[in-house]
Amino acid sequence: MPGYSLFVALHVLAGVVALVGFWSAALMEKGSPRHRALGKVYLVAMAVIVATALPITVQYAFFRQQPLSALFLAYLMAITGNAAWLAWRAVTDKRDWKRLVGRIGWKLALWPMLLLALATLLVGIGKGQILFLGFSMIGLWTGWRMRTFARRGPSRPDWALRQHYQSMLGAGIATHVAFLGIGMRPVWQWLQAHATVPPLLVELFPWTAPVVVAVIVGIRLDRRYGGRRAAMAQAPR
Fold first, then answer.
1. Which long-range contacts (CB under 8 A, 24 or more apart) does 221-230 make?
2. Average pLDDT across the chain, whole number
């Protein structure tokens, strides 16, 4: 495909910026000017990643004729875009949840992700692909939460804070999955060929480790901000 190498280069460059930006923002004091500035850099980098992932997906679907890889890339693009959009809008619309769910971006973030998650689930069942099965649950669960939120509204006064850090963790999963699963692929291939570790474990590690870490961090953050007093203190004003 014409210009494919340029899209790949931009995708990789944005991935490096996103990886650095994610950890730089995470290590800054929450709400500080540096935290907000680095968070914006990270989200812009994620937008570039999602945009450049589209021609890469087309390349796999039509030029390389690898429809399953194209489906998985499209699904990763959808859940990444969903997480980045929610992390951004949870801040801009923290005082009005109805404005958030009424945006056209809400539907654009929700429905492609849900449909691709369902397709990924069906392929996972039909082909016996553990990776497809596991990752499809992320989109289905996120979609269910979004639809519940849109119908019932927030159940906590600090919903925006929680939505922001949960979405940032979701986007962080995508960042680290790409780095570990794609950027470090030669390492895992070498381990599969030379190490005594079961090959399936090596294959799944770069895809599942970021999810496990994000879940643990999410639980710790929920405990930190989960009390009633903390929720009232962190509620949008």
1. 221/165, 221/169, 222/162, 225/158, 225/161, 225/162, 230/158
2. 89
